[in-house]
Amino acid sequence: MVDVERNRRATMVAVGVVGTSPEQTLDQRLLVIALAIDEWLDRHKPDVVAVERVFSQMNVSTVMGVAQASGVVIAAAARRGIPVAMHTPSEVKAAVTGSGSANKDAVTKLVTKILRLEAAPRPADAADALALAITHAWRAGSGAAAATTGPGSSALTPAQRAWADAEAKARRGR
Amino acid sequence: MVDVERNRRATMVAVGVVGTSPEQTLDQRLLVIALAIDEWLDRHKPDVVAVERVFSQMNVSTVMGVAQASGVVIAAAARRGIPVAMHTPSEVKAAVTGSGSANKDAVTKLVTKILRLEAAPRPADAADALALAITHAWRAGSGAAAATTGPGSSALTPAQRAWADAEAKARRGR
Question: Which residues does Mg(2+) 1 bind (chains A, B) (predicted)?
Answer without folding.
Answer: 125
